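May I ask you for just one protein sequence along with its backbone structure tokens in two labelled lines?

_____
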Amino acid sequence: MTEWKLGVIGGSGLYEIEALENRCWVSMATPWGPPSDDLLMGEMDGVGVVFLPRHGRGHRLPPGDINARANISALKQAGCTDILSISAVGSLREDLAPGALAVVGQYVDRTARRPGTFFGPGLTAHVSMAEPTCPRLSGLAVEAARDLSMAVAEDVTYLAMEGPQFSTRAESRIYRGLGCDVIGMTAMPEARLAREAELPYANVCLVTDYDAWRESEAPVEVAAVLDVMRRNAETARRLLVDVIRRLPRSRAASPIDTCLDHAVVTDPVAWDPEAVARLMAVSPRRFGHQGRKSPV
């Protein structure tokens, strides 16, 4: 058993919560460069919480320029045990109207230009992404939403697109045909990297629009999306507070905490020292001296 320390990635206004105590902004350096912003650390109901504005304060960074490796590394280096990601999405389902919440169970990754792994030449690993989100944290988010009388869909499939442009109507129809439920630009490679850092990850999405598949609907415009996001901000804060209050007193171990034990395939005698030095930031447990096990 251990204590929770929850990393929260989301919009720059998400952290404006009165219940957050002992708050302070902390600059964090990582082997992968600077994260999107400083980290806001504090406590809520006795739980350590670390906020990271995904796009930087003032929304400075477009989706393709977010340094997801640095963001995940910074949260791990800050001692986070789990990550709750809160993001805005378009809906690919008639019954998921703007204003609804969706908790992700699966991803279809259509991004192409973003570094998506901490590993590379000199140290290779293959983590399982069959179940890419944490059922424990996702379940708490669903329970919190329902108790707050929020419309919520669970176990949805998120299509991650490159952006920063919105979809064409033809693309949107194709994504619906693939069986996807929501579409966004930020969850990948974030979710993949969280798994490589052995951080259980849950993704709560706030629906802002119907994307472009509805012929009767006006095309997605950023002004309308931002308007819904502003109205959804309080919903996100209420949900986050309730999720934190639901966390068990002690944190039982998750299988994700040790997922690298059977993922690293490079023999320890061949590990590149520079790669090891970088990876110590995201898994000191696995890449410290005691973690150097032979590959399975």
